[in-house]
Write a structure and sequence with these properties.
Blueprint (H helix, E strand, L loop, with lengths): L12 H5 L1 E5 L6 H10 L4 E5 L2 H15 L4 E4 L4 E2 L6 E5 L12 E4 L11 H10 L5 E6 L4 H7 L4 E4 L6 E7 L8 E4 L3 H15 L3 E3 L5 H12 L5 E4 L13 E4 L3 E3 L4 E3 L2 H8 L9 E6 L14 H9 L8 E3 L9 H8 L8 E3 L4 H10 L9 H12 L9 H15 L6 H11 L6 H19 L7 H27 L2 H9 L9 E3 L4 E4 L2 E7 L2 E4 L5 H28 L6 E3 L2 E4 L2 E7 L13 E4 L8 H18 L4 H10 L6 H12 L3 E3 H4 L9 H6 L2 E3 L3 E4 L5 H9 L14 E2 L13 E4 L2 E4 H21 L13 H5 L4 H10 L2 E4 L16 E4 L6 H11 L72 H5 L1
Helix pairs in contact: 7-16, 8-9, 10-11, 11-13, 14-15, 14-16, 15-16, 17-18, 18-19, 20-21
């Protein structure tokens, strides 16, 4: 039956008896009943308002009948196996043929009253018929229209499976789980989703502007329980089957394309009815804080609440209609038929849809001159019927249609052109709005490629368009999830109420702590650090999750550390550290000055607070055993500590040992207090490993690299440390005023004190040989071989300055005269330490010689450098000598008594205690 201008209400009583209208509110199982009835027939077809719903039912029927027997036909997608007998279509793509299939059903038929698409549903309601059975599915408000347009049709009412009740106003932060928030603008949808992300971990997003694939993925995310909330536009009311318990309205008014108006009670019920599935009751309400802006809360009226709860709405008084079979003789006749008015009182002329608006716009354009003949008029109308997927409006969409017609009027669109346009859209970069724009554009090309007579290589181009749309949909889903879903917070909110042992917390190899793959923080050593990307609201939950789940993880980590990870432990800053985190502070019993260096004590750090007590005690014992082995290089210091506690050693010897312990193995003679130490105690101390040097007293084993590094790492020696304890340090290799422990200055270099002592001993041995050979000569010069000093890396001049600090004075040999041949004469050395009282006697002389540098051994540091001032140097470049000039070989006169006081007998050994090296401590400070 056709309705060109005066539609007849029915096809006849016999046909109408095969029409069954199943009407009722949401959650009545109407669609499920239609699927069962279709699968009981030999063939069938169903029309749906959304591609999304068609795809959902397609998957269900395909699981029953198999892939080869089921087809999916929409404007942008066509899956049609050759043997297909069951067709799932959108209403626009649903064929108008009658009797071709045994069963035909139209879902959501009340959309015939929709101003934009109503004429499509009205046409299918009037013309789509099955050979054996036709089923009309819709709201109870459609009943008068069915009776008026299809007399004799069987009408069946189905009650709602569950109860729908009003729950009042609710805050967004207290919204119950498994809820949907409904808004009517993109901005409000995004605002609600962002708020839910902060309060509840996130929400799925469903809007009409999203591609069906993206909506499917968002709905699947909600259905699977990954999120407990969904934010949607009124598209949620069009047949989407969701496990919802509550629907909250963020607005009760929407813009319908012409004006902003309040929703009708039936529209409210269509959306609110999504709450409750099968036998589970549902609720609906509004959100607080989303009112009119004048302080009045958003709320339903009593009449609206009654209508929604009791499913009583005003019946439809008309459906929109437009001639579905217009004449194509000319554009004028085509437009006239499309604008014709129906004669039946139940039908009303459809408002001007965008396809008709584009046709009228282009009919007045020069492009209309190219449309001649019925075939071209029909083809031109098909082009104008291309949906405005981009929602750009009549004017811009008309320009796109004009360009498309320019390509189509000569035949087909080339595959290369379509492939190039598809390739331009095959880009996954961009934000949500950018991806939505690309998806809208690719849907337009997918629609074009589905037309049988528009594109060459149609199947290949359609497959490419679908592939790009799928990729863009995946990218859009990822952007939406990234922006509006905090999966970590969602998982934690679900898990915090569980037993700690059931919390799915995992420690990854890189130290990150995850809950079902989502990072909540990381372990640095044994310290849990909350993910720095977490917001303030999330930190408390993350810490709570860590406190619940970490004890078991930390216990396992402690066992691994003691069994396999001890090689990663280190001592630094007075603590045992692992992964740069302190596990235990190391302290030694006693107090400064006691000389006590016994068993160390460990104080576990706060990082181990969450470790169970049994695991903590085991870890402490393991660390103590590891530390005891690491302290083996300090065994000489322990021996000294035992001697310091030995009462038989004598108070003077114990005092020196305690001083040496506090100095960590090296001390200058001036600070040792040797004047109080009886000489008979020195052999006892030497047995302990103590060396009495010319300038220093030290324990040689403690000068090795391992003990020096260990003392520094333990914090027992805060002086700079030389890791390798090299024999000699080059100038500038230490910080100013921070000479490494165990070294003393040697001119511009520094030398380890034990090697300095060897050089001093070699000089004393050379002097002793000369003194023994000439016992009657006082202060006879001798020769010092600097080979030992040079061999360890000390420069010759710095070696002379080192010897000068111990009282050795050099008289440089005169250079050979010009033209003379032979070996140069060796330098002449004398030993003349400063005697008691000499400082005071020379103070007056220093006043007369303010230069202060005469008589200083060559290369000796000046006063401002902190080095000692040498006595009796014979540097020929200086302006004279201070003190007596040592006698030359064969000189019988001796020193002048007017300048030098009488001297005690020459001592051939090292300097005696009692001020022999008074103030040589200045050497160390230089």
């Amino acid at each position: 039956m056709t309705f060109p201008a005066n539609p007849r209400p029915s096809r006849g009583a016999e046909d109408n008896r095969r029409v069954r209208a199943v009407l009722g509110p949401t959650n009545t199982g109407k669609t499920h009943l239609a699927i069962e009835r279709m699968c009981g027939h030999s063939s069938g077809m169903m029309g749906f308002p959304l591609r999304l719903l068609a795809r959902e039912v397609y998957d269900r029927v395909r699981a029953i009948k198999g892939d080869k027997q089921v087809a999916l036909i929409t404007g942008e997608e066509r899956i049609e196996p050759p043997e297909a007998r069951y067709f799932l279509c959108t209403a626009e793509a649903m064929p108008r043929t009658a009797g071709q299939h045994a069963f035909v059903a139209l879902d959501e038929a009340q959309l015939g009253a929709d101003p934009e698409r109503g004429h499509i549903f009205t046409d299918r309601l009037l013309h789509a018929r099955g050979r054996e059975e036709t089923m009309i599915l819709g709201s109870a408000t459609l009943e008068p229209m069915v009776k008026a347009l299809i007399p004799g049709a069987e009408i069946t009412s189905r009650p709602r499976f569950s109860t729908l009740s009003h729950a009042g106003v609710c805050k967004l932060s207290r919204l119950p789980k498994r809820s949907a928030v409904v808004a009517f603008s993109v901005e409000q949808v995004y605002a609600m989703a962002e708020a839910l992300r902060r309060f509840r971990g996130g929400a799925a997003v469903v809007m009409g502007a999203l591609s069906p694939e993206t909506r499917n993925k968002q709905v699947a995310m909600f259905q699977s329980g990954e999120v407990d909330y969904i934010v949607a536009t009124d598209a949620i009311g069009m047949g989407l089957n969701l496990d919802l318990d509550h629907v909250a309205f963020a607005a009760l008014a929407k813009f319908d394309g012409h004006r902003k108006r309040r929703l009708t009670p039936s529209e409210m019920a269509q959306i609110a009815g999504r709450a409750g599935r099968h036998q589970r009751d549902g609720t609906f309400g509004t959100l607080s804080g989303t009112g009119k802006g004048d302080g009045e809360p958003l709320a339903f009226t009593d009449e609206e609440v009654y209508a929604i709860e009791e499913h009583k709405f005003a019946p439809l008084t008309h459906l929109f209609w437009r001639d579905a079979t217009p004449r194509f003789d000319s554009l004028a006749k085509l437009i006239a038929d499309l604008e014709s008015r129906p004669a039946h009182p139940a039908l009303k002329a459809a408002p001007e849809a965008i396809d008709l608006a584009v046709l009228r716009r282009l009919a007045a354009d020069p492009v209309a001159d190219t449309v001649r003949g019925p075939g071209n008029v029909r083809r031109f109308w098909e082009v104008c019927s291309l949906p405005d997927f981009r929602n750009v409006g009549v004017e811009q969409h008309a320009r796109f249609i004009a360009r498309l017609w320019d390509d189509l009027r000569g035949g087909y669109i080339g595959a290369d052109f379509i492939a190039a346009r598809i390739a331009e859209l095959d880009r996954m970069q961009g934000d949500i709005d950018t991806l939505q724009g690309r998806i809208a554009a690719i849907r337009a090309y997918a629609y074009i490629c589905q037309r049988p007579d528009w594109v060459l290589a149609r199947d290949e181009m359609a497959a490419r368009a679908r592939a790009v749309e799928a990729k863009l949909s995946d990218a859009l889903h990822a952007r939406l999830t990234e922006r509006f879903v905090n999966r970590r917070t969602t998982l934690l909110m679900k898990s915090l109420g569980q037993d700690a042992s059931a919390l799915p917390v995992t420690l990854e190899p890189d130290g990150h702590v995850t809950v079902e793959g989502e990072s909540i923080g990381r372990l640095d050593g044994f310290r849990f650090q909350v993910d720095p990307d977490a917001g303030v609201a999330d930190r408390r939950m993350l810490l709570a999750a860590g406190e619940k789940a970490l004890p078991a993880i930390l216990a396992s980590r402690a066992e691994w550390l003691l069994a396999e990870g001890v090689g990663e432990l280190e001592i630094s800053g007075g603590a045992i550290r692992w992964q740069n985190r302190a596990l235990a502070e190391i302290t030694f019993p006693g107090h400064p000055g006691s000389g006590n260096f016994g068993t160390p004590r460990l104080t576990l750090s706060r990082d181990l607070a969450l470790l169970p007590e049994a695991a903590k005690a085991k870890l402490e014992a393991g660390l103590a055993a590891w530390l005891d082995k690491q302290l083996e290089p300090l065994e000489p210091l322990r021996k000294l500590a035992e001697a310091a506690r030995d009462p038989e050693a004598g108070s003077q010897a114990r005092a020196l040992v305690i001083t040496l312990i506090e100095a960590r193995g090296v001390i200058s003679r001036e600070d040792a207090g040797l004047e109080n130490l009886p000489k008979e105690m020195r052999p006892y101390l030497r047995k302990l490993g103590i060396t009495f040097g010319a300038l220093d007293i030290f324990d040689a084993p403690l000068l090795k690299p391992a003990p020096r590094r260990l003392l520094h790492a333990l914090g027992l020696d805060t002086r700079a440390v030389q890791d390798a304890m090299l024999p000699v340090l080059a100038e500038g290799s230490w910080a100013k005023g921070r000479l490494p422990a165990g070294y003393r200055y040697a001119g511009s270099q520094a030398i380890r004190v034990d090697l300095a002592e060897k050089i001093f001993r070699a000089a004393f041995d050379a002097r002793s040989l000369v003194t023994a050979a000439h016992p009657k000569e006082r202060n006879r010069p001798f020769r010092v071989d600097l080979a030992l000093a040079v061999s360890v890396g000390l420069e010759a001049e710095n070696a002379r300055r080192l010897l000068g600090s111990a009282g050795f004075r050099v008289e440089r040999a005169r250079a050979l005269a010009e033209g003379a041949q032979g070996a140069p004469a060796p330098d002449r050395w004398y030993w003349r330490p400063r005697r008691p009282g000499e400082k005071d006697e020379r103070r007056g002389e220093r006043k007369d010689t303010r230069s202060g540098q005469r008589g200083q051994p060559r290369g000796e540091p000046r006063a401002k450098s902190g080095g000692p001032r040498g006595k009796g140097s014979d540097d020929p470049k200086r302006g004279g000598q201070r003190g007596p000039r040592p006698p030359r070989d064969g000189d019988k006169r001796g020193p002048r008594s007017a300048q030098t006081p009488s001297r005690p007998p020459v001592d051939t050994g090292p300097a005696r205690a009692g001020g022999a090296f008074d103030k040589l401590a200045d050497l160390l400070k230089g």
